[in-house]
Amino acid sequence: MSSDEAARRRDQIVNLLSAYGELSAKAMAEMLQVTVQTIRSDLRALDDAALVRRRHGLARLAIPQENIGYQPRLAVSRSEKERIGAAVAALVPDGASIALGTGTTVEAVARALAGHEALSVATNNLHAVLALRAAPKISVSLAGGRVRMRDLDLIGAEASEFYGNLRLQYAVFSVGGVSLEGDLLDFNMDEVRARRAIAGCAGHRILVVDHAKIGRAAGVAMGQLSELDTVVCGGALPETLISACKDAGTRVIVA
């Protein structure tokens, strides 16, 4: 293995940890399609360079960061997010009204919905708008307010008010992480308020999460997985969460 290959892979590991906060060696090995032993070797080198810290089987950046870098997140689990998008598109009929939240997984949902007809879409996600720009039979309403340039979204008071005035059939949103106890987590209160407003504007609430979000830490809670109508994920949930969802009547779809 060349030193250039190792350097590129270690850059990818840093990007993954910037996007996801903390990950296991196994999760990163699956994402980068290498062995767990290779990732552990990389993590030792990054730890020695004071770039990464390892604790209880998880790795994180030495300097904790907010969920940053839309472009690195876009590259992570791309095929998984496409499967999630296709699964959500199969749930939503032509002619429906739907709210789309922020994030790369929701952007994948928007791309999958572009072939639908007569959809009425409300969103605070400029990436979702761009994904639907070539769909003339779909109408799109965009929240107002200040644009967060990092992610090209709107999450301030105006966005919450925008959703608060709507009554739609479906709402699709993601979160920063889902704890092993089923807590829905995010990185700041503005993100939580926006997602609460999105969830509250629709009769059927759909959470979309790729497998790396399960067990991922974030600082602010916004509810429980079992309070939602449908969860579409790219990997199997822990049995405790599946059981809690089943008891609550929450449908779980593994894409």
Strand content: 15-25%
| Secondary structure: number of strands | 13
Number of helices: 10
Second-tier CATH architecture of the largest domain: 3-Layer(aba) Sandwich
Q: Name the overall outline.
A: globular
Q: Using only CA atoms, what is the Rg?
A: 18 Å
Count of all domains: 2
Can you describe what's shown?
With 255 residues, this protein is of the alpha/beta class. The protein has two domains: 3-65, Winged helix-like DNA-binding domain superfamily/Winged helix DNA-binding domain (Arc Repressor Mutant, subunit A); 72-254, Rossmann fold, CATH 3.40.50.1360. It has ten helices and 13 strands. The strands form three sheets. Strands 6-5-4-7-10-12-13 form a seven-stranded parallel β-sheet, with helices on both faces. Strands 1-3-2 form a three-stranded antiparallel β-sheet. Strands 8-9-11 form a three-stranded antiparallel β-sheet, covered by helices on one side. The longest helix has 18 residues, at 3-20. The chain is globular and about 55 Å long. The mean pLDDT is 89.
Write a brief caption for the model.
This protein folds into two domains: 3-65, Arc Repressor Mutant, subunit A (Orthogonal Bundle); 72-254, Rossmann fold, CATH 3.40.50. Helices cover 41% and strands 22% of the residues.
Question: What are the SSEs and their pairings?
Answer:
Blueprint (H helix, E strand, L loop, with lengths): L2 H18 L1 E3 H8 L3 H13 L3 E4 L2 E4 L8 H6 L2 H14 L5 E4 L3 H10 L6 E4 L2 H6 L7 E4 L14 H8 L3 E6 L3 E2 L4 E4 L2 H12 L1 E8 L10 E5 L5 E4 L5 H10 L2 E4 L1
Parallel strand pairs: 4-5, 4-7, 5-6, 7-10, 10-12, 12-13
Antiparallel strand pairs: 1-3, 2-3, 8-9, 9-11
